[in-house]
Amino acid sequence: MWTKIRHWLDVRIGLDNxxxxxxxxxxxxxxxxxFYTLGFLAVVAYGIQVVTGILLLIYYVPHPDHAFGSxxxxxxKVPYGWLFREMHAVGSNLMIMVVMLHMVTxxxxxNYKRPRELTWFGGGLILIVTVIFGLSGYLLPWTQLSYxxxxxxxxxxxxxxxxxxxxxxxxxxGDYVSATTLSRFFALHVxxxxxxxxxxxxxxxxFINRIGIxxxxxxxxxxxxRPLTEYKRKTYPDGYPYYPAFFKKQMYMMMAYFAxxxxxxxxxxxxFFPNEANMPADPFHTPQTIKxxxxxxxPYQLLKLIPNKFFGIMLQLILxxxxxxxxxxxxxxxxxxxxxxxxxxxxxxxxxAWVVLLFWGRT
Amino acid sequence: xxxxxxxxxxxxxxxxxTVHANYQQEFENEFLTKPWAGVQIEQNFCISCHxxxxxxxxxxxxxxxxxxxxxAQNNVxxxxxxxxxxxxxxxxxxxxxxxxxxxxxxxxPEFCGKCHIAxxxxxxxxxxxxxxxxxxxxxxxxxxxxxxxxxxxSINIISVQLCTKCHSYERAKVMKQALFLxxxxxxxxxxxxxxxxxxxxxxETDEKSLFNTQAEFRALFHTVDVNLVKDRTDEFTTKxxxxxxxxxxxxxxxxxxxxxxxxxxLSFVGMGIVIFLL
Amino acid sequence: MNRxxxxxxxxxxxxxxxxxxxxxxxxxxxxxxxxxxTAANKITIRENEIASGDARTIVYQxxxxxxxNRPDKGFIALSLICTHLGCVVEFNKSSQKLVCPCHxxxxxxxxxxxxxxxxxxxxxxxxxxxxxxxxxx
Lengths: 363, 278, 137
Fold this sequence. Notes:
The complex is a heterotrimer of chains A (363), B (278) and C (137). Chain A is an all-alpha fold and 363 residues long. Chain A has one domain (37-211, 243-362): Cytochrome Bc1 Complex, Chain C. Chain A is built from 14 helices and two strands. Chain A has helices at residues 2-13, 15-24, 38-59, 67-76, 81-108, 117-139, 144-155, 164-172, 179-211, 242-267, 294-305, 309-324, 326-329, 341-362, and strands at 27-28, 240-241. A two-stranded antiparallel sheet of chain A has the order 1-2. Chain B has a domain at 152-278. Helices cover 64% and strands 0% of the residues of chain B. The longest helix of chain B is centred in the last third of the chain and has 52 residues, at 226-277. Chain B is flat and about 90 Å long. Residues 16-24 and 35-39 of chain B have low confidence and may be disordered. Chain C has two domains: 1-33; 39-136, Rieske [2Fe-2S] iron-sulphur domain (Rieske Iron-sulfur Protein, 3-layer Sandwich), CATH 2.102.10. In chain C, strand 9 and strand 10 (133-136) form a beta hairpin. Chain C starts with a helix and ends with a strand.
């Protein structure tokens, strides 16, 4: 029966050709490692967020008077509401970790180099969109943590001299975090960002497929002579076929992702919910410590360290721009990071600094 | 090469700016005192005059005492009890703005009873209240609870030092015993509700029910009528039982959740292992 | 039965268990509808049992509530749980107000807060008048 369906589709969309080129003839270089599955994992993570998010959307009410109560209802009254809410909350943090890990491994393997600069740039934009997803979603449960962390983060733009205040006001829809803020963050989280994310992801995947997988320099297979001056899709005729070998790796990582997610839901359900995350927002009582989410702690701490706010935020912006445009700044032919001690040193320093700032920002 | 120089130059230029002593203070000033950072510590003229150097010493310690109180934690300040206008220095103590000054010893119950209505009613019916109104030796609210440094009420206010000021401790002890079990249970339930909040469940109905039970129970105490308390203890116990049942049910559902997600985790781990072996 | 086939069978088994657990929770989640308001949940009172300006306390769904016959606007049913900390509010007939004995939170006969610490108005309960009966719920 399956053959009949397959043939029916083949007549209409050329299914056989698709399967042949994308699955059977698609060859993966022999020296890929497990980190090559991280991109796929990010897509899976996003898919989980979308599905659980839509389910939550069915019961959530985006108004300050009802937001907290509706989330509590999801957690206590709706059957299995707790499951989907926990998956969404834990999943959001895991997704950001996966996306960051993906970025770090691509960087270390030098896979951003020419001709793959656009892929890296698109990926950088995706990271920013993911963080904005996290930011906008954080406010929605309308808890003490949501309210005050959003207050702090939406005032970070005030560091800009002239345009800072208006930017903050537009973000918040006023001088305070209020119902207006909730509405626009909700619209952002649910309607504006998803199509942007999908478009960026589509473009990112298109680029990868179009130019071919970049092989790591750690094995015998090497890149052609650089610099490249004309378009050539990279193929690996003596690599192994995508299905079943690489597909198996991806499935395995997906199971690992779910296992980690459910490990956290079972044994550490309050890992991402400190006390303030379980109290309804009270605009009149500022909790003792206000902190943004962990992925924003490092920038937050950096901003606290640099006494001049303007320089603080400029530094952050410069770092972001350097990060996005890195393939255009790093035009050295050498791809193997083991042979580039300066880059390794700088990168390690930045990574350690980021982690240090993160833990510092927690106190 | 040039781009590296620009990059490093910019970063190094930023570095000296990090050498600064009170960045925390400045950050807090810049961000946390903005209008959106919650209710501003508004200028309260009662406090500012009463803490100033010109104020006579016995009144100067009052704002300090008040700040440590449970009233202060709940935004109940000078004008809520004493009247007056805390935002206007000239009219801060004006009768036109409702200023009543400090009450006479025997008028204290009505003073506190402006808000604490149920307790006032019960107190006036009690032996303590009747003695107070008859001009005899009797306690008012301040004797047991303090005036400005008022803390959350607890059963330990009933103590040897306090009650033996006027009579033997025997009757107070009997009352304390009558209250003890219920009070302890209320405390335990309050702790369990806190625990539930840490687990992500916000038990609003039960919290309110518990507060109501506790408030009624404590208001009843002010009649200092041991028999009344004993008679009505059953009623309170029933309400507490109900709250306890709800809490138990919540714990059971939390347990179910843990089992369910553990089951899912194990099946994913299993599938991962199988795929790995495949 | 070789190793591969065995492993595939286990995978199919585990996969279907997981899949069906999710489908089960998903379906239960989507079809959760609160219990119908059955006759047992409703309270019926005759109109003439409450005089104008007077009120009657009832127990609705295990919590105290009140039906007030307002002189100008007719009947209203309100929950008596104070929105401050949960004490039971009392009806004061002479001043035509609802006052909470714990911290003197005062509400008008619509349930709106007049003074005191309560942050929100009293919850109004669904009330219908059919013929000469008042039905709550």
